Structures
1.
Amino acid sequence: MRTSGQGATPYYFVPSESRHPIMAAAGLFFVMLGASQWINSYEWGKYCFFFGLLWWLLVLFQWFKEAIQESEGGFYGHKIDLSYRWSMSWFIFSEVMFFGAFFTALWWARAHSVPALGSLDNSLLWPGFKAIWPSLAAGATASPAGIVEPFQTVGPFWLPTINTALLLTSGVTLTMAHYALRASHRRKAVAFMWVTVLLGISFLTVQGYEYYHLYTELNLKMTSGIYGSTFFMLTGFHGFHVFVGMLMLLFITLRLQKGHFTADKHFGFEGATWYWHFVDVVWLGLYVVVYWM
């Protein structure tokens, strides 16, 4: 570890060996194992899922706590700041690819799979099927083989539109908090951050109510054919990302209240804002493609 001078911030900081990466991976293993078994109707799957999730969250809490102590201890210099920026950039890029795969699945189903099922080649296999997305038009069936229960589709009014307003507003309040921090107005930054966190919680509450409405009144479920599966995969994973982003902003807010971050050194804050704005952009794509189209 080089230093740029006596008692100065290290030129580059190399942390000691840590158990956290393997422990976090173990927690995610139980999460994926439990989720895969839960969705296949094995009762023990949900217990495995929540056990792994709790394990993973506890490991992240300890890991981030150590990173915060290192940062506040003056170990992180310019090179570490660059490393974090590149790491966050590549992480968000991987998230773009993640959601891109689900958007592509939705496009493929609408532009290729459904039209192929209604083509002349399949007319003998699936007589009477009309290739109209999402196969619920007059005279159409919910699925060619008739194995999907009838369901209703969901439009943009009013819950998705309310959630769009909530997320866009949260992006504005987060930006105002960032400007306040850069101007060394900590109290204003904390106030705007709390508003942003509350807006994120409000979004999740509205989405939870929307899911309840879809399941109980529209009979729209994960099992509702390709429409239901793509709808819940896209909106559900986005909701999970909102939850993670909200937790990030919550912890950043608590750190602000403790006096962490300065006008010139606050990448922890910036990284959380990058992630939140990414979540906003993904929702705008969902709002247009899933709810309007």
Note: The first helix runs from residue 20 to 38.
2.
Amino acid sequence: MITRLQTNPSIIVAGHRGWKSAYPENTLLSFQRAIELGVDMLEFDLRFSKDKVVMVIHDQTVERTTNGTGKVSDLTCAELKQLDAGGWFGKVYEGLKIPTFEELCELLASYPDVLLNVEIKPSPDAKEVADASIAILEKYDFIPRCIFTCFDAEVLAYIHDTYQLKTQGFPGELMSNYVPGEDGTISKMWAVGISMKLLTPQLVQDYERQGVLPWCYCPDTEQQVFYAIGSGSLLMTVNNPEPAIQIRKLIERKG
């Protein structure tokens, strides 16, 4: 399934942590609403709880997106589940919880066409998180839907070499443990995520020449979406999926 992106001529919209601009990020509600809006892919972040349950949360600590304190890795799954992961975004979202990866997979089972950008957060146990996450994905038969992302090039290479799975990296200056040269980290990357600050038509062409799919993040306005299209980057990981989806519909109508 993920391989269809190699030949896709249209805009592909990936919801960054779900529908991040409108709902509390990395919650089941955020993912559900992004799917209902029409995203093609979901991007989400994985890390271990203290008792090695794979949790869907971006930050190393819980302060920003919950009412708790401390490191995710210092709290058990049960302790993390006691936290409110929605109230910080708005009172109406009070009571939302940090999902386990299993809970997200249960939701995704009803949407077999949605692709998955699985980001393993850099940490001392990131390779172990990758192992556990891939085992869960295999149980649900989701692997064909997935690409794996990490800002740590060593973890990315581990996933590529150990499992022969498709990976998305980043420009070398944004990654830790990046190995330069054509046989280095770039050779492990199926796709690259380019921030809007770095995105240029020249950079897109450079990656295309190296056989790497040039994706971008986060074009969240109409102007940014049109710039991404003009630069040749058609897969867009977005905080707000609405502009990209509306522009895609407009292009398809005209086409």
Note: Residues 58 and 91 are 21 Å apart (CA to CA).
